[in-house]
Amino acid sequence: MRIDLQILGERCRKGLVGRCIRLLSVCAILMGCLPGAHALQDNTLETAGEKIKIVDARGRTIAVKLPVKKIVVLTSDALEVIRAIDAQGLVMGVNSGISDDPRFWPQLKDRPSIGSWRNPNYELIAQLDPDLVIGYAQRPGPGMEKKLASLGIQVVRLDFYKLNTFEQEVKTLGRILDREKAAGRLIKWYRGGRDLIQKRLKRAESRPSVYVEGYSKYHGAGPGSGGNEMCLMAGGRNVAEDFAIPYPEVTPEWVLVKNPSVIIKAATLGKACGTAESDRLKAIKREIMARPAWDNIRAVREGKVYVLESSIWTGPRAIIGVMVMAKRFHPVLFKDVDPEEYHGAYLQEFQGIQCRGVFED
After folding, report:
1. Per residue, what are the HEC states of the chain?
2. pLDDT tens for residues 178-199?
């Protein structure tokens, strides 16, 4: 990183002191050229205004400085929630994949890229001078806090892909961004879908056995994973329920022994508006059904193999994925439920867009 000291001095003379502090701290973090970086951090924090305490996705209680006026958003799940609560105007930077999906992100596709959500460019983040960076609980690793804290940049980790914590995380984000009413509307919509599903399932006489496969081949969804939560909420019994880890790698033989009556596969096609045609989803389905000896599995014999696009597998729209699964698990109970209609209403009301893509096959 190169910092022109003449330009830096000019900015200081113009009164941009906070900017100068952060630029100097960037130098300290990335190149180790400023021994007094910690002192600068303390001076920055002394000028902080009101703070609120929140619990993040890692279970930590942290203090967030208010008001938050500028944010960098590493994950598309968080970005979708932010747009749903009408806070997209605060977004200064996004991950590199957003520009690749202009149909879903028409107003956000041109925001500055800070690299991938797994491995962001901290120098670019520092140049955007945000108040807050939002990322997943586990990735990037804890080094993100260490690198950004000395710049006076707060890190908040919220997942938005786990059904059991989604409502609380939306509520938390609403408090942080001063969008509590809008957050309440999103939570009400989410609860409407959840309550519909739970009400219908009260009449279910049994729960089908389900093998849930994540994005990678032969990676199941154990306890603690979003896929497991979706399966249970949809009225299924996950054959991987006895694993001690969220994303176990299984063998083809293990699935054969379990002999599930339904197979659910998550597929990422890189387009949040779904795929224009179902051909790609159908190809994934054919591959699963053609796996050696899998024609002996009940789900394959009866044609109950379903592929869900990742857009309805994670984030706010995971509840739509649950609705799709519930209809597949219990077709009689959900015969008059139209997940596609529910999905379209959400996109129009909360995202301000229309998507005509295919999300399930």
Report:
1. CCCCHHHHHHHHHCCCHHHHHHHHHHHHHHHCCCCCHHHHHHHHHHCCCCEEEEECCCCCEEEEECCCCCEEECCHHHHHHHHHCCCHHHEEEECCCHHHCCCCCCCCCCCCECECCCCECHHHHHHHCCCEEEECCCCCCCHHHHHHHCCCCEEEECCCCCHHHHHHHHHHHHHHCCCHHHHHHHHHHHHHHHHHHHHHHCCCCCCCEEEEECCCCCEECCCCCHHHHHHHHCCCEECCCCCCCCCCECCHHHHHHHCCCEEEEEECCCCCCCECCCHHHHHHHHHHHCCCCHHHCHHHHCCCEEEEEHHHCCHHHHHHHHHHHHHHHCCCCCCCCCHHHHHHHHHHHHHCCCCCCECEC
2. 999 999 999 999 999 999 999 9
The one-letter amino acid code at 293 reads A
Give residue 24's identity as a one-letter amino acid code. Answer: L
How much is the pTM?
0.80
CA distances (Å), origin 26, targets 113, 134, 143, 152, 328: 18, 19, 15, 10, 52
d(CA 309, CA 275): 8
Tell which phi-psi region holds residue 153, choosing left (phi > 0), alpha (psi between -120 and 50) or beta.
beta
